[in-house]
Amino acid sequence: MAGTPSYQMHQHMMGGMQQMQSMPLSGNVDKDFVRMMRMHHLQGIQMSQMELQRGSSPEVRQMAQKIIEQQQAEVRQFDEWLRRNP
């Protein structure tokens, strides 16, 4: 199963989880939430892009496209909040 798109997606997800777990906490719940959710959303975007590249179900591809659009908008909101709250 190594090398398959599903395996690659799983490996990417596990790498992102490790990054989130190793992220130093600021002690500010709001900032930590935004930073972790930003990373989580970036993972969702990348997984959705993999679905668009390799998936065959029109229904799932439509879900993936919607996830990309919504989570990109939320990442922009997170980035803006982090700029205002260094």
TrEMBL record:
Transmembrane segments annotated in the record for this chain: none
- UniProt feature coiled coil, ranges: none
Limits of the DUF305 domain: 6-82
Source species, domain of life: Bacteria
Q: Which Pfam families match?
A: DUF305
The record's annotation in InterPro entries points to: DUF305_CopM-like, Ferritin-like
Designated name of the protein: DUF305 domain-containing protein
Which organism encodes this protein? Answer: Ramlibacter pallidus
